[in-house]
């Protein structure tokens, strides 16, 4: 399956500045593995030492959070769109 992956600004250095790339895979896990094979360093940014998606990384499949589906085992179909969205924290308490 060929899916489009939207790359957030902080990770675009790994994709030579590309905002969106096309990757093969039948599940989110396979897509992440294939991202790593094409763009070294991607998986360590997305996954912890146990291979699980880091809690501050949100991944959406066609605008639906994979945490409410089958997480990394969520199946993808040809033409689907995946968005990687890192959580934003910080600010100043007044």
Radius of gyration: 13 Å
Helix content: 10-25%
Order of helical and strand elements: EEHHEEE
The named CATH superfamily: Beta-grasp domain
What is the CATH C level class, in words? Alpha Beta
Pick out the low-confidence regions: none
Number of domains: 1
> Which sequence of strands runs across the widest sheet?
2-1-5-3-4
Number of helices in the DSSP assignment: 2
Do you know the CATH topology?
Ubiquitin-like (UB roll)
Shape: globular
What is the CA–CA distance across the termini?
49 Å
| Fraction of residues in β-strands | 15-25%
Q: What's the CATH architecture?
A: Roll
For the residues shown, what is the average pLDDT? Answer: 94
- Secondary structure class reads alpha+beta
Largest sheet data? 5 strands, mixed
Question: Based on DSSP secondary structure assignment, what is the total number of beta strands?
Answer: 5
Question: Overview of this structure, please?
Answer:
A hairpin with a 2-residue loop joins strand 3 (57-61) and strand 4 (64-65). The protein has one domain (2-86): Roll (Ubiquitin-like (UB roll)). The chain has helices spanning 28-38, 42-46, and strands at 2-6, 20-24, 57-61, 64-65, 81-86. Helix content is 17%, strand content 24%. The protein is of the alpha+beta class. The protein has a five-stranded mixed beta sheet, covered by helices on one side.
